[in-house]
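Many introductory courses stop at the sequence. We go one step further.
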Amino acid sequence: MKKRIIFSVTILIIAISLNLKATSIDSSNTNTLIAFDWEVISDIDKVLQHENPKDLSKRSIDQSKRAAEHYTTAVSLMSNKEYPAAIIEFKAAMKRYKRAKLSNDALNFIRTNMALSYANTGNKEDVVVSQRLLSLITSKVHDDNKWSYNVAIANHLVGNQDDAATYLSSVIKKDEFNFQAYVTLEAIYRNSGNDKDADKVQARMQKAEDKLSQRKQKTSTKKEKTKGNKSKKEEFFIPKGEKPDVTNLKIVKTDDHLQFDKIDKIDERSMAQIQEGIGAYNLGVKSLSKKEYKTAQNYLKDSEKRLKRAKVSEDGLNFSRGNLAISFLATGEKRGVSNAKRYLKYLTPKLYNTREWTYNIAVAQYDFASKSKGVTKEEYMKESIKLFQKSIKQDRLFLPAYANLIYIYKQQGEDKKALKIADAYKKSALELMTSYSKEEQIAKGGDAYIFRLNLGTFGDFDTPADVFEELNVITIPISARNTAYLAGLFYTLDEVLEYQEKMNEKGYTNSFIVAFKDGEKFEF
């Protein structure tokens, strides 16, 4: 039992935090680092650092300010992996920067981010554009290691592995404790078949880790260490969450429009109108589920009109109005925002009797607020937060509500609130991962992890004879002489823990659990 508790805490700290995408990584612990991992950088306030203020005209300053608006928007889109949209904003920013006649040194940041965006679109033709942008980056980029690292990543993504290795080597030379650079450089060499240089990088990284560990022991008192570890832990767990997406909702289809009315008091003529209204509603939600927003709007408008004529209560009209608001916001059109407001303001509290509707309208309220200004923005954002909180109370295992609320709190600079929700998220995610089936995990917005047990790494002469008797055994070559053996295939932690106990009894006492998500491996 004690072992299970310790293991659960390990999962809580590593696996769930990776899913929340921490804003800061403790690079001194290389076990948590993933090769080719990178973060979007803005540094909008440093764009003009290489320019002489005396040489900047009033027009240059004005154009730079306008460029900064596009650049900031682009970085935000880039952070959300909306690369095509980011590219459009970066182009608009570049146009302004060129009008400002900034030097090539000043354009390093935007060119690096554009190169990364083009490299991540998945379009082959964009790779060429990314390569051209990288060729324009000046040596001044080496002044900042975090930018040098991102340039290395961009070169890797477009196939310039030698250039990527050169940039990473430069980063390590300037900062011997930049372990993310070590991990990525080793992977580049390893993937290219250059095991010799990969081993050298790994050995150098181990030496740096030992050096850093010794330095900490010499310079820190026990009290300072405790304080430092606490602050690091807090920094590590500042999550980004997930932006609410009105275009990615699970539309509610099984609604009872008459549940708030006395059916025996509805006359025959009104009932005919109601039946037609329900028919139009069913067609509307079907179109909305298919993201056919214009078609959905037509059906849902007709539904609301017919139900209203039949004098269905305001509570009963909630369903048509709620989905109308979602359909207008999902178009992304400016006109859709004003139309959505008309329906949102008439929604009654009865709509929030189910988690499904509470969550969907919370997302809609957020989307409307983010596209509004002033008092309206503040009012609808507060309502959105209340509904996200309510949806969590209604279903504490529904993870998207947590992730969205974390994102909003981070956006508002409320890190303490974000951390509190993140802790609750981790507990719920761990409960899902531990005992619920794959289907149930996905239905609750969880990640479908696959768990395997790493039985160990063995050579040609010490491989246990019974290893191949296990189910779903796969082998992973580690070197010319050694091979790792993974066995089992499970979807919950309970199952793989039980299997690990059995394998321990068979003598595999150094086994450890490995989780796979979307083809990516996490070792615990």
